[in-house]
């Protein structure tokens, strides 16, 4: 098969190598405005991207590519979340002078990243692993899994109880009033996409140790990240084949 892979970070370069090693043709592509028909794979090739913009959709149609978006595939979300969670621990250990073991930790959000991250922190022996969620019905689930459940709306009252805070929620929850309640020396690792969940101007003014850790699979573990994408696109291709 032919795969045209949209350029991103190191994962996409490695993905091309993996596809070629499996006997496919693979080409790394820049943004569509730099495409040239004579230098592209022929029509019918799969155009691989996590999520396509409208411009990319139109370009794919113009050049005859079959768009393949893997970003929302449940198996990819799960695998990529686990990889990101492990990377988040690396970031925390790099910026902290004490172990996560024995620390009071808060994870905001219990989705694709928050769930595996909470499990890793628990297995490392964190003193408490609190998980903040929006919906009250999630509290009993978290308690049953051995976490301390917290409602996101109560962060202002509880913010001062933690040594490390990991945010995975794509909304502004760590506002200035919440940041003002934090313990001295607290570390914030924000894993949410831009603009993140931290009021960054306030964090800088207060000289808090806060890190916006984006695209960790591409930065820290690109081989594993590339393999996760490879598994996802093979699954999509296989499902499309059997659906015919």
Key structural traits:
single chain; 244 residues; alpha/beta; six-stranded parallel beta sheet; four-stranded parallel beta sheet; 10 strands; 42% helix
Layout of strands and helices, then pairs:
Blueprint: E1 2-6, H1 10-21, E2 25-29, E3 46-49, H2 54-63, E4 66-69, H3 74-94, E5 104-108, H4 114-124, E6 128-133, H5 137-144, E7 148-151, H6 155-158, E8 164-167, H7 176-179, E9 187-190, H8 200-205, E10 209-212, H9 216-220, H10 222-243
Parallel strand pairs: 1-2, 1-3, 3-4, 5-6, 5-8, 6-7, 8-9, 9-10
In short, what is this structure?
The protein is of the alpha/beta class.
Describe the overall structure.
The structure is a single chain. This protein has helices at residues 10-21, 54-63, 74-94, 114-124, 137-144, 155-158, 176-179, 200-205, 216-220, 222-243; strands at 2-6, 25-29, 46-49, 66-69, 104-108, 128-133, 148-151, 164-167, 187-190, 209-212. With 244 residues, it is α/β, with parallel strands linked by helices. The strands form two sheets. A six-stranded parallel sheet has the order 7-6-5-8-9-10. Strands 2-1-3-4 form a four-stranded parallel sheet, with helices on both faces. α1 packs across α10 and α3 runs antiparallel to α10. The longest helix has 22 residues, at 222-243. The mean pLDDT is 95.
């Amino acid at each position: 098969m032919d795969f045209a892979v949209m350029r991103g970070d190191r994962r996409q370069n490695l993905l091309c190598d993996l596809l070629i090693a499996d006997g496919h043709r693979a080409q790394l592509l820049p943004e569509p405005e730099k495409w040239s028909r004579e230098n592209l794979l022929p029509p019918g090739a799969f155009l691989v991207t996590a999520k396509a913009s409208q411009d990319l959709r139109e370009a794919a149609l113009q050049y005859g590519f079959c768009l393949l978006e893997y970003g929302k595939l449940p198996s990819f979300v799960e695998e990529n979340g686990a990889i990101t969670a492990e990377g988040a621990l690396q970031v925390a250990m790099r910026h902290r002078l004490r172990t996560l073991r024995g620390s009071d930790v808060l994870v905001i959000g219990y989705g694709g990243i928050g769930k595996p991250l909470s499990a890793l922190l628990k297995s490392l022996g964190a003193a408490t692993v609190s998980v903040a969620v929006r919906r009250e019905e999630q509290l009993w689930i978290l308690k049953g899994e051995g976490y301390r459940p917290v409602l996101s709306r109560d962060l202002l009252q509880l913010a001062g109880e933690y040594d490390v805070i990991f945010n995975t929620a794509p909304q502004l929850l760590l506002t200035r009033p919440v940041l003002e309640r934090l313990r001295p020396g607290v570390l914030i690792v924000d894993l949410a996409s831009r603009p993140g969940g931290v009021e960054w101007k306030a964090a800088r003014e207060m000289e808090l140790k806060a890190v916006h850790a984006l695209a960790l699979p591409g930065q820290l573990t690109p081989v594993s990240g590339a393999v996760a994408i490879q598994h996802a696109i093979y699954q999509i291709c296989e499902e499309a084949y059997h659906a015919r």
